[in-house]
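Give me the fold.
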Amino acid sequence: MPLNAPRRIRGWLLDVYPSGFGKVAVWIISESGERIKLTDTFQPCIYVSGKQEDLECLLTKLCNNEKIAQLKFVYKYASALDNEKSRVIELTLKDSRQIRPLTQEILRMGDYLRYELHNCDIQPDRYYLFSHDLFPLAFLEVKITKTGLTYTLLDSVESTNYSVPKLRMLKLEVDVVKKAVLPSFEDEISRIRLLEEGKDDISIDYGDEATKLLQLVYAIKELDPDIVVTSGGDSYLFPYLVHRAKVNNIMDKFILSRDSMSFEQKASSGKTYFSYGRTFYRASTMRLHGRIHVDNNNTFIINEAGFDGFIEIARTCRVPLHTAARFSIGSSMSSIQFYQAIKDDILLPRNKKIPEAFKSAIDLLVGDRGGFIYEPRLGVHDSVGELDFSSMYPSLMAKYNISAETVLCKCCPNSPVRIPELNYHICTRRVGMVPKTVNLALNKRLYYKRLRDQTPDGYLKQVYDRRQTALKWILVTCFGYLGFSNSKFGTVDGHIGVCAYAREIFLKAARLAEEDGFEVIHGIVDSLWLKKKDATQEDYNRLCKTITDNTGIPINFEGHYKWIVFLPSKMHPQVSVLNRYFGVMDTGKLKVRGLEVRRSDTPKFIYDAQMEMINVLSEANNAKEFTQKIPEALKVIKTYRDRLIKAEIPIADLVVTKHLSKNPQHYKQQVSQVIAAQQLIKEGADMPAGTNVAFVFRDAENKRCNRRVTAERLIGKNFNPDTKKYLLLLYASAATLLSVKGYTLKSICDAMNGYSTNTLHRYLP
């Protein structure tokens, strides 16, 4: 190779972040396993639109701005609704970290009204990926020259057969010497543990505190992990370690990143936000540079789909790994749209500018109705088949080209494509942003499901299932984001339009099933439960093909139930509940919805008892055998009752976890989670809205609020739980399960307090 020839590296892209002024650091895992840091120049662009005379004036004012490397007029689509490009100012910044201050400066120049800023809220690391058409863990070749890096992508975001390098994972745990009931930043470190899969644990428990911290730095450097896993690393562990490093005057040496960059001196506070009717809290990110920090307490996607699903989301959505671990699914999905917009020369507005069309009261009554539902037939049903539309709403968005810029577009008022019931027209001249981005996730998920079902390899089956699960969450979220007020490509008109199409297709599917001799037992939004005497799997498959051919939306046969139970309302026993049922398929697979075992606040004790009851009932082959199995299922409850009374249940199995929807001081009622949160706050803990509170019932009927429950973190050695309260929860779980046969909480209590399970039938209402 000639002396001045550019150096080339083949490998996988691990991490990207701003490093020096106008520079970014790029970490590559080479084919040989080396972790290599490269440096590239990066000067992002933001755009300004407005009246041409105002832009001319602004251009003059910005000529000598020290933050700007270059400025010029270019032509871009200033809005997703525009049919023609507009003349806008392109500002090339000297450093990516100056985007926010320059944005505020320009807004002030125009009194926050004259200028519209675009592409100004994309994080620098993502902007770099978008600009170079890259994504995390992409396999590529990098050419290193004097002027920077040149990439040759040897991978594709559409790929389903990609390989990733073996990532080194390390779990970090820290024990403290507690001076009070709860640990605080003032407590000293007792022990630091490092856990690697398949290797002996490393324990750092000797020397003074400064020695322990420096030994941690040395161990991390020697082990050189790619991913550091913690529990509470964002909210407590890393901020605590940083504080202890400051106390010991070794902050300049306390570096856990691959890079020589230390932790930020001031970590921003966490964020409470509201999404899908629920309040969430996300702790601020504690960033490692050149490594990926994963906080198990601050990640959704890894908890739902494992690391395989996490990597799939990062690749598909082009989101850096450390961000993908913490992002909400909606934010990840928006990232695909941002990339597609930049690729299509569409500018991303700082604030959403797409208005909702005016609707009269009758329009709202007709259009805003959600999905269609057939009320379930109360009782135990034999031989029922379930059909499920595959990603129905995203498929409709893709099929009918539903997006903010296509529904009620200005260019096609006479379009023949009309949304049913609403009569809104849809553009026929261009494909919308939402359909473009949804198609990628739709196609990949269908392919992964096919691979999962076909492969005999157990490991690959698990990998494919995790990947499709991750994409399922993208597709589930994309419909909600279509109507989200802050979504840059969202539209309420499109949102209700998707519902209108869904209702039409769902009703059409039900009619086709009835024409084929099937009886509809239950139907909800995109799933149908059907019954037909002596129907075979071939009959169901043929029906699926008929529905798919007639609607254009794929529907699948999910399985055949030996029996399925649709449960009654607790308030009105003669009325069935839409989303509370359980059943067992011919394959032995259980399907449970709406019961205690599906609730996140159910203590393990109750979960285990109800699950064991369901497993007993699952041995039945039909409705008659289901009834015969009830006494055996009730014996399970008696066993758990006896264990509870004899204090054989671990306290950990009695823990109830509840969600704080607002700050504890804003509650009017002293509910259990508020009492537990107040106990923790008194001990110095921070309990903002959106966090979870774990507690155990101590004396549920006590008039003194503070004695009703005890926060889990405050439980002492001689703690006695409220046995009566947990017995009632146990009996209530059994009553829910068997309510279809007339069992109530009272009848279960009577049986357990003196009557045998075999004579319980006499005491039914």
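Residues 755-765 have pLDDT under 50 and may be disordered.
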